[in-house]
C-alpha cells in the first residue's frame, strides 16, 4: 500500500515510534532556519549556537549555498565513480590549491574520511616498510567517527563498549603529552592521528609544542601524521584549516562537517606520493564526489577562504570569548574558565557543577538559545561563522539568564 507519510502530522514523539533509538533528541523540533535563527512549529524563534555540531558554518539557507545546490540539481545529480564530473574536479583543484595537499578523496562523512585515512596509512606503510608497521596511535578523549575502525581509533571507551572485538594494533596516549608520544611512537607505528582541537573531548586545543613534537617524531620513525580537522577545519579557528595557524603540516588531513554546510560530504587530503599507495579498486564509495555535494562544497570553500571572511571569524571569536569570560567572572562558582580557539569555544563547569552540563543545555534552550555539550563538564559553542556582534551579545545574554535559571532551581530544592 502506498504511504501517506508525506502529509501525515509528525512531532517530537513520533521519534520513539519510527526511529532506531541511537539518539535522545531535544523536545525542540526545528522546522525552518535562516542564518543563525531557527523556528519551531509553533513559530518560536531560537538562536542557534550549535551550528549543527560545527556543520552549518555559513548558517541556515546561505544564499551562495542554496544557489549552488539549486543550479546543480537542475544539471547533473549523480554519475558514480565509473565516471568523473566537472564539480568534483573543480572542488579537488580548489582544495589542493588552498592546502599542502596534491590529491583529494571524497566521501560522505568525517567517519568515512578518517576510515580512508587510516586504511591509506596502513597500506602505505606496508608497501613502504613491510607488514610489521601497522600500529596506529591516537589520543585519549579523541573522536574520529562511528564506524568500527574509527570508533576504535577514537579515544573514548563509551563508544566502543558492546562492539568488541575491536580492530587490533591501536593505542591511545594522553593529549598534549610529549613524553607519552615519544614513548609510544616506535618503529611499528604507521600513523599518528590527532585533532588540532579536540571537539567531543572537551573543546581542548593542542599546544604548538605538542604538534611540532608529533611532526618530528613521525618524520623520525617513518610514520604518517594525520590531522583530523572534521570539526576544527573550514574556518572554525580563523584559518582555513587549523594546521595553518600552528605552522605544522600533516601528511594526511580529513575534513567534513562544515565542508558541505549540511550537505553530506567528506574529504581526505594528502600528497601525491602517499596517495599512490591507493590503486584502482583499493578503496571507494558510491557517492564520493557526487556532483551535488561537490558543487555545494565548492561554494562553501570559496565563501570561507578569503582574508576578509577569516579575519571576521577571528574578530567574532574574540568577542564570543570575551562574552563567555564575562559570564565566568559573574558566576565563578559555576564556571572555571573558557577553553578553545576561534569560534570553537567551551565554558568549563566548576567543581561544584561538574556533570551538570545537560541542566544548563536545557535551561539555555528554554531561553531560546541552542548550545551543545562536550562531555558532562563543558558547554560547547560552535555557531555559524557569520554570527554578528549583536547575535553574539544576544547569545551571552540568554546564557546568563539560563545560568540564573539553573541556580534558582538548585536553590529551590
Task: Explain this structure.
It is a single chain. By secondary structure, the chain is an alpha/beta fold. The protein has two domains: 5-62 and 308-411, Aspartate Aminotransferase, domain 1 (Alpha-Beta Complex); 76-304, Type I PLP-dependent aspartate aminotransferase-like (Major domain) (Aspartate Aminotransferase, domain 2, 3-Layer(aba) Sandwich). Helix content is 38%, strand content 17%. The protein contains 14 helices and 17 strands. The chain has helices at 14-18, 51-54, 63-73, 86-98, 110-128, 148-153, 178-184, 208-221, 242-246, 272-275, 291-304, 307-330, 357-366, 389-411; strands at residues 30-34, 37-40, 45-48, 103-107, 135-139, 170-173, 189-194, 197-198, 204-205, 224-228, 252-255, 266-270, 335-341, 344-349, 369-370, 372-373, 378-381. The strands form four sheets. A seven-stranded mixed β-sheet has the order 4-12-11-10-7-5-6, with helices on both faces. α3 (63-73) packs antiparallel against α11 (291-304).
